[in-house]
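Mods, move this if it's the wrong board.
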Amino acid sequence: MNTLISGFRRNLVIVLVILFLLTQALIFYPALANDPGQPEWWMVLSNLLLISIPLTLLYGSLYMVVMAWREHALNGQVEPRLAKAIHWAPRIAAIVITGFISLFSLDVFETQAPPLELLAGFLIHNIPSIALIVLLVFAWKRPAVGFVAFLAAGMLFAVFFVRDFYALPNLLLFVLPLLLIAALFYVDWKWLGAPPALATQ
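Not the wrong board. Structure tokens:
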């Protein structure tokens, strides 16, 4: 049984790494091709690293959900080490995706405006991040709340930020990571039961 899971895990990692690289190319290449100038190498590298944040959350969360489903289907339970990782993963991922979303509010400071207008613009741009922080506070000890809250957040992001084919990067960078955070909360709620820290090692 362990050999079966190990082979599945190895194949899953290979597939997800390939998808990660293809997704980076899908998001980054069109923007690079449409740029009339030749960007500096450090700019290309920094942009690749930036979009790696939500993509790592996306494919890392997908890995955990699929492995939990596989172990639950084969053994009726999730092994303690993976269970502990899954317990913390949606909480940490929610903090990281909130920070990533907040980065887009920094462009407010590039405008020439009075300080109060800059502050107001910064706060308005951070409304989604503030909402996610509030959701996480309520969900921290209640995975069922986390599942419903982040599922709703993912659907709202889809409604507001994915309106046509050209918004596909928004789907990959914002919506799917939020939905997979919801899926991790669901696994924590339905399949793990007691907090993994209390489980026997």
